[in-house]
UniProtKB/TrEMBL annotation:
Pathway: Protein modification; protein glycosylation. This is Dolichyl-diphosphooligosaccharide--protein glycosyltransferase 48 kDa subunit. It is found in: Endoplasmic reticulum membrane. Residues 2-98 form the OST48 N-terminal domain. Residues 118-195 form the OST48 middle domain. It comes from Smithornis capensis. Its main location: endoplasmic reticulum. One of its GO terms (molecular function) is transferase activity. Subunit of the oligosaccharyl transferase (OST) complex that catalyzes the initial transfer of a defined glycan (Glc(3)Man(9)GlcNAc(2) in eukaryotes) from the lipid carrier dolichol-pyrophosphate to an asparagine residue within an Asn-X-Ser/Thr consensus motif in nascent polypeptide chains, the first step in protein N-glycosylation. N-glycosylation occurs cotranslationally and the complex associates with the Sec61 complex at the channel-forming translocon complex that mediates protein translocation across the endoplasmic reticulum (ER). All subunits are required for a maximal enzyme activity. It is a single-pass type I membrane protein. Keywords: Endoplasmic reticulum, Membrane, Transferase, Transmembrane, Transmembrane helix. InterPro entries: DDOST_48_kDa_subunit, OST48_MD, OST48_N. Belongs to the DDOST 48 kDa subunit family. Component of the oligosaccharyltransferase (OST) complex.
Length: 201
């Protein structure tokens, strides 16, 4: 297999060595092989934009019991011999990744919440302009779940019913208005009950 290097959705899981190539084993090589070196993908993964995952393997024997239990040794003389290959661990890791095993309620697991609350937060200031703003979170990392969130917020002046009943910064104006009312009330009482002195002949 050969993957397009410009495709951001493809994950190279297992590649060939720098001296490897892929061609028909029963035919002589008459033209340059299509898959050469590390461009040869033995196992590849694909994660779509909707977080669907699929794994492509170049051989079904890779997942067989015979390959799981077979002993391996490097071709170099005096190299260490291993009783089992790493195919089993890789196959288990691939199955957990492609089926998203951690997200399935197969067996209950306790995930402790850290002391910080487990939430990422940020505080920022909007521009001093009225309008409609969109806050977007687009986290896309190869092999991980794609996170996308969009929140729309409108910034507008408050209505007169949304302000506080008494604003602390307006206390001097309140005092001026009430003192003027009190002065007018006292002036009315004095003006209404004041009698002019009678003129004497």
């Amino acid at each position: 297999m050969v993957a397009d290097p410009d495709n951001p959705l493809v994950l190279d899981i297992l590649t060939g060595s720098s001296t490897s190539y892929s061609f028909f084993p029963d035919k002589p090589i008459t033209q340059y092989p299509h898959a050469v070196g590390r461009n040869t993908l033995l196992i590849a993964g694909l994660q779509a934009r909707n977080n669907a995952r699929v794994v492509f393997s170049g051989s079904l024997d890779f997942f067989s019991d015979a390959f799981f239990n077979s002993a391996v040794q490097k071709a170099a003389p005096g190299s260490k011999r291993y009783s089992q290959t790493g195919n089993y661990e890789l196959a288990v890791a691939l199955s957990r990744w492609v089926f998203k095993e951690e997200g399935l309620p197969v067996s209950p697991q306790c995930h402790p919440v850290p002391s910080s609350g487990g939430k990422y937060s940020v505080q920022f200031k909007l521009p001093d302009v009225y309008g409609v703003f969109q806050f977007k979170v687009d986290y896309n990392r190869l092999g991980y779940t794609h996170l996308y969130s969009s929140t729309q917020v409108s910034v507008r002046p408050l209505q007169h019913t949304q302000y506080e009943r008494f604003i602390p910064s307006a206390y001097p104006y309140y005092a001026g208005a009430f003192s003027m009312m009190l002065g007018l009330f006292m002036f009315s009482i004095v003006f209404l009950h004041m009698k002019e002195k009678e003129k004497s002949d």
